């Protein structure tokens, strides 16, 4: 699948936004702490990936009812669903001058029921011609083994078209409006689970 920038200007994928708020002191401090041990772009991108994937639990896995949508809130509260964790990772990348985009899959149950959007991040490291999608959701349930990769994708799930699942190719500079609306309107995660967007 060929990934496509919604905005042709690469600067859009470095910009500060309402959700990707990498000008926030907490985001910048977190980025600086990670960069202290990982000064080059590749090792930093991988270390930031592991940090978000493994140290910020997905709120469904942990049972946390809070809903976060800004990168700074995800880092401060230490929780978020895939959309929010993706925003946090994008912000940590942009804080170090690495272009980062938000992108999505449509996933479903094994019988095609209960479709929902799943959030990913695409990164473009210096010297790389192509964007590479990353999945920071967290490796739960057992058997999920998402990893940082610039070559063959190592996402949590591979789409199954026979069940109506979709890889959306467009790369967004901020959360897609349907995703952001759902996050901002939800008073808690149980409510959010009932109102998750099902397609772009």
UniProtKB/TrEMBL annotation:
Stretches assigned to the Transglutaminase-like domain: 29-134
Superkingdom field: Bacteria
SUPFAM superfamilies from the UniProt entry: Cysteine proteinases (SSF54001)
Transmembrane stretches, start-end: none
Designated name of the protein: Transglutaminase family protein
Organism: Streptomyces roseolus
């Amino acid at each position: 699948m060929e990934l496509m920038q919604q905005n042709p200007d690469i600067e859009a994928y470095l910009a500060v936004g309402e959700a990707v708020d990498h000008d926030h002191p907490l985001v910048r401090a977190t980025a600086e702490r990670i960069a202290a041990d990982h000064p080059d772009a590749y090792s930093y991108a991988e270390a930031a990936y592991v940090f978000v994937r493994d140290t910020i639990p997905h709120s469904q896995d942990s049972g946390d009812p809070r809903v976060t949508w800004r990168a700074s809130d995800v880092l401060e509260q230490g929780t978020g669903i895939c959309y929010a964790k993706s925003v946090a990772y994008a912000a940590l990348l942009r804080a170090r001058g690495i272009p980062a985009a938000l992108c999505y899959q449509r996933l479903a149950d094994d019988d095609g029921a209960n479709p929902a959007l799943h959030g990913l991040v695409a990164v473009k490291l210096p010297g790389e011609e192509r964007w590479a999608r990353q999945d920071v959701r967290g490796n739960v349930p057992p058997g999920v083994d998402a990893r940082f990769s610039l070559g063959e994708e190592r996402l949590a799930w591979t789409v199954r078209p026979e069940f109506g699942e979709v890889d959306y190719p467009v790369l967004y500079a901020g959360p897609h409006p349907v995703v952001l609306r759902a996050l901002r309107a939800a008073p808690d995660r149980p409510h959010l689970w009932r109102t998750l967007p099902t397609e772009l």
